[in-house]
Write a structure and sequence with these properties.
The chain is of the alpha+beta class. Helix content is about 35%, strand content about 35%. A hairpin with a 2-residue loop joins strand 8 and strand 9. About 15% of the residues are buried.
Length: about 150
């Protein structure tokens, strides 16, 4: 039986894939659970139109992410932290502080989209972080941790 997946199914496929599975698997599990629909001619036409519209939206979102990436290129952040006399930070610098520093520069970036090169930053110095703006667009930013 040919079906269209409505969401990602492990070891089977991703959303909007048209695949062939055994009749019982489709009728007894995938369709009743809402994971798939039968791939009729009209359902395939609707799927093709949805994919076309989604591709247009994705292209626009990617273009906006690339504009933001161009603005962020060469950006250098300064993050202040309380330190001991030896330069060790009390606590550590994390993605929340980087997100707040980016917010201060005018960029609305969520902390989950920031990936630091070092897991824990516990000393004063210069570091790098990657900011994921889109699944295909990433920017590497530099930031300095200074003593307050």
């Amino acid at each position: 039986m040919e079906i269209i997946l409505k969401q990602d199914v492990t070891n089977l496929g991703t959303k909007d894939d048209v695949i062939v599975v055994k009749d019982g698997y489709a009728r007894n599990f995938l369709i009743p659970k809402g994971f798939a629909i039968m791939a009729t001619a009209s359902a395939k036409k609707v799927l093709a139109e949805n994919i076309r519209q989604r591709a247009h939206k994705e292209a626009r979102i990617k273009a906006e992410a690339e504009k933001i990436a161009a603005k962020m290129t060469g950006l250098k952040l300064v993050i202040g932290a309380k330190t001991s006399s030896t330069g060790k930070i009390f606590g550590s610098v994390n993605t929340i502080q980087i997100s707040e520093a980016l917010h201060g520069q005018g960029f609305e970036i969520e902390r989950k989209n920031i990936q630091m090169q070092d897991e824990q930053i516990k000393e004063v110095g210069s570091y790098k972080a990657k900011v994921k703006l889109h699944k295909e667009v990433q920017v590497e930013i530099d930031f300095d941790v200074i003593s307050e």
